[in-house]
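During the reporting period the student researcher (J.K.) took over the structure-prediction task from the postdoctoral fellow and processed the backlog of single-chain submissions. One of the processed entries is reproduced below for the supervisory committee.
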Amino acid sequence: MPEWLIAVLIPIGLLGVCAGAFLVWVSVDTHNPVHRDTSDPEVGHWSDYS
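J.K. obtained the following structure tokens:
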């Protein structure tokens, strides 16, 4: 197999794998990916851990 063909197929394959992983990630429940309970904003605040 010519070297230039390998040099082209590897990046395209990696891009395809990344695109597939992204599509799987999107298909998983991502309606609210960063849920934060704001009922009591002072509890668990990042400044409490110092």
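The committee noted the following: The CA atoms of residues 25 and 31 lie 11 Å apart.
J.K. will present the remaining backlog at the next meeting.
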